[in-house]
Write a structure and sequence with these properties.
Elements (H helix, E strand, L loop, with lengths): L12 E2 L3 E5 L6 E6 L7 H12 L1 H4 L1 H14 L14 E7 L2 E7 L12 H5 L7 H17 L11 E6 L2 E6 L11 H4 L1 H18 L2 E4 L4 E4 L1
Antiparallel strand pairs: 1-2, 2-3, 3-5, 4-5, 6-7, 8-9
The structure holds adenosine-5'-diphosphate and magnesium ion (MG).
Adenosine-5'-diphosphate (ADP) binds next to strand 1, strand 2, strand 3 and strand 5.
Length: 218
């Protein structure tokens, strides 16, 4: 079997670091590839030199993302309720380099579900229904105590689930700190989740209530 060909396709989305393609053979999956790096600054040249010498440096983010996913899915004390992040379905070779294959999250026949960022908009508040779903999402992240590094509203996507809708984390799993205290200690991770949800609330002009672990207006 040859490489999966993506170079001639148009990405369906992109973020700061990756391009997202529909899987040419499995429409329920997406493929994510790293973008080409812009011209290197001196600092980036040092990073690249390090990367060429120390492969673990180059793949640190991907390794921590996959590691956090695997650790969560293999928990012996599986919490009730569905897993709150898109499924990771493997690493595959493409003509654009190594790609992560993931579950495609979508609503009502759209290619991709809307992000929380797009549902809130710069001047539009999140609807009551979406706010309630966001609070269910937060409760689920705490129940699984997922290790995350970026609960940005662009990384949280609305998708169909069981005849209804729910939010899924599609990016930002994994603890990339040098000394991974949040990975080792559940209590430390709960403090970190509170910190990241507080940042997320600020971006949506909401308030994060640490005691109740919910988003509130105003
Ligand atoms: N599994 C997914 N299902 C639906 N949409 C997704 C999925 N993964 C990513 N996206 C969309 O693609 C965008 C970029 O993907 P992301 O993984 O966040 O890239 P980056 O690492 O560059 O931030 C997201 O903001 C989201 O809109
Ligand atoms: Mg992202």
């Amino acid at each position: 079997m040859g490489l999966i060909e993506l170079a001639a396709l148009t990405p369906v989305a992109e973020g700061g670091g990756r391009r997202v393609y529909l899987h040419p053979a499995f429409p329920d999956c997406l493929l994510k590839v790293e973008k080409d790096k812009p011209p290197a600054t001196a600092r980036q040249k040092v990073d690249r030199l390090l990367a060429s010498r120390l492969p673990s440096f180059a793949v640190r983010d991907m390794r921590s993302e996959i590691g956090a996913y695997v650790d969560a899915r293999l928990r012996p004390d599986r919490p009730d309720g569905p897993f709150p992040a898109a499924e990771f379905r493997g690493l595959v070779d493409t003509d654009l380099g190594l790609a992560m294959r993931v579950q495609r999250i979508s609503v009502a026949g759209q290619v991709l579900g809307p992000t929380v960022r797009s549902l809130a908009g710069p001047d539009v508040a999140l609807s009551d229904a979406h706010l309630a779903l966001l609070n269910e999402f937060a409760a689920s992240l705490f129940a699984w105590n997922l290790r995350t590094r970026d609960l940005n509203p662009r990384n949280i996507v609305l998708g169909d689930h069981d005849g209804g809708e729910r939010f899924y984390l599609v990016d930002g799993l994994g603890d990339v700190t040098v000394v991974p205290l949040n990975t080792w200690f559940d209590a430390a991770n709960r403090v970190e989740l509170n910190r990241q949800f507080d940042l997320c609330a600020g971006r949506l002009r909401l308030r994060w209530d640490k005691g109740r672990r919910t988003f509130a207006r105003g």
